[in-house]
Design goal:
ten-stranded mixed sheet, about 30% helix, disordered N terminus, 10 strands
């Protein structure tokens, strides 16, 4: 009888330990790659890519971090500019602003992505919101983007409505012309794509996105004036 009790105790301890390990593994960031910021060029800045495993073989979350030799206000302008997004956002065919409230930093948009056959095109209805952070060591602005449901934007035949659970750009001002940029994404394109294939594609996304954002921001000089002023108020 005592042996059986000891056996059960050991069994439950092992089960608890395994469950704890599984839960913990899903909350830790794991570095999976490092690449130079400028592709095919010597660059003093590196992109570090990390992933956070999801339980039950679901879609993982991916994060990329780098430093760009560009002002925080310039990068914010590029992220906010609808007209130029097709020049740097991979496979974006269309972005249409449905609502915009500059005073609150909030906007709603429809996006259509042109994908290669045999994969169907994807589209998203997204809400974007800027936040200027207070009580941070560095001047910081965060752009949070997620999918929403709009009755006036029904699904379109031939396109799969994807689910963007989280897309976050964190901009930290290091110098007047130097910004630490962190991007984090968790997206489920839906449709028939298996999760392992989605994860395989998404692990490259932070590198591609940060490189193209950097290249686009270097092309011009226009800045996000409101964000610049609000950051100055926080610093002062």
């Amino acid at each position: 009888m005592n042996i059986n009790i000891k056996t059960y105790v050991v069994f439950f301890i092992l089960i608890f330990a395994l469950s704890a390990c599984k839960t913990t593994s899903g909350t830790k960031w794991i570095e999976i790659d490092q690449e130079p910021l400028a592709e095919n060029e010597k660059s003093e800045f590196t992109i570090i890519v990390e992933k956070k495993n999801s339980p039950e073989d679901e879609v993982n979350t991916y994060r990329g971090t780098t430093t760009m030799p560009i002002s925080i206000e310039r990068i914010a302008y590029v992220l906010d500019d609808t007209e130029s997004k097709k020049e740097w956002v991979s496979r974006l065919k269309e972005e249409t602003r449905l609502e915009e409230n500059p005073s609150s930093y909030r906007s709603i948009a429809y996006q259509h992505y042109n994908l290669s056959w045999p994969v169907s095109d994807r589209d998203y209805v997204i809400e974007s919101k800027w936040t200027v952070m207070k009580d941070m060591k560095l001047p910081t602005a965060i752009l949070s983007i997620k999918s929403i449901i709009r009755d006036d934007v029904p699904e379109i035949e031939g396109r799969v409505r994807g689910q963007l659970d989280r897309l976050v750009y964190k901009l930290e001002k290091l110098k007047s012309n130097q910004t630490r940029v962190t991007v984090e994404i968790m997206v489920n394109p839906k449709g028939l794509l298996p999760n392992f294939m989605i994860n395989l594609i998404q692990k490259e996304w932070p590198i591609t996105t940060l490189r193209q954002l950097n290249a686009q921001a270097l092309k011009g000089s226009a800045i996000h004036e409101k964000l610049k002023n609000d950051l100055k108020m926080v610093i002062d």
